[in-house]
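ok trying this again, last paste got cut off
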Amino acid sequence: MGLNIDVHDLQLTYDTHPVLDGTEFRVERGDLVALLGANGAGKSTLLRCISRILQPTGGQIILEGKHLQNFNTKEVARLMAVVPQETTADFDFTVEDIVMMGRFPYLRRFQKEDQGDQEIVRRAMEMTGISHLADRSIATLSGGEKQRVIMARAVSQQPEVLLLDEPTANLDIGYQSMLLELASRLNREKDVTVIAAIHDINLAVHHFNRFILLSGGRVLAAGRAEEVITPENIQKSYGVSASTYRHPLHGVLQVSVVGNRKNGEHVEGGPAAHVIGGGEEALPALELLSQKGCRLSVGPVSAQDSGCRFAHFHSLPVIIVPPFTSMNSEHRSEHIKMMREADLIVVPPIPFGEGNLPIFEEVEIILKEGKAVYIIDLEGVEARDYSGRARNLLKGLIKQGAVALEKVEDLPAVINSGYNRDGGGVNER
């Protein structure tokens, strides 16, 4: 199963406008390939040329050493199955009728489907989870259900190449995952070569092992994720600034678009906010403040902390201390300096232990100097307090002027009301 596909100098022009302009690449038998690129880069057009829906104006597509135009229609249908972006139901066919259409390339004229064909269709419906829909009209199904039906038709076609044209467009995450997992399963169990046009890069890297990035109808890069999905290539293809990083849970390469700002660059005139501590508990506050254009600093955190990764990703000032240790005098001096340079201090709903309680001695110093300090979720502190002393300590800070907020989402309102954009300070108290 599976086919090698060679695309040489492929060209296609619409009304003198080149959509494919010398596209060239090779797909090895059994590859899982994601076609990436901005809208208009040529992804769907390329798939339609490979499936012979469109006739290119130049170049060649070769399957296993044989030119695509030398295959007859039935041969192509046995070799390749296509799952398009959208499916329209012009006729009142049942789901089983639609899936059975995948067997037509194997039938002679006027030949009826036999028991073998029916068994293949039954297994295809089981694999795609639509057996219970067999007698339903295709016109009565939701978009996600229709897409599964078309996927089942492709499975029953028993192709060596599966072409997916943005199959997850307009589907919820459940259907997205199901369709791409099914494509991976066909690749793994049947050695089917899969080529899919995908607009979501972060979704693509979970399910594919090879990538082709298109830009202006040409191949900008091809290969493994690390070779193709780089900030430079994303800028060239999509026209946006982006950063790449390894997801902390599964280690898969991910992309984060940073818009028109470079890492570490902030909205002019935004307040400077220092977020104390880290961990996953601090990330919502960091993300929200970043979105609001605050100039952030972070710490103290350990090098493995989520807050530290956030700071490095956005090129933020950060105080890093060894794990499970208290700050030394140098760290404490740096922490005080960082807080003094901020307009406001945020204490997110972090866990408290003997190791981080001394941090709040510096917070008390800063508070007495007139800095605005916001403490989030005071009521829930007991569930996060492993020292038994944090609640009284935080209440003491509130008596001295710190502001208690119920939740992270309350931060923008108090910042907007208290931040003096003309004078450049927080006038909360």
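PB: full thing came through this time. The chain has two domains: 5-229, 272-426.
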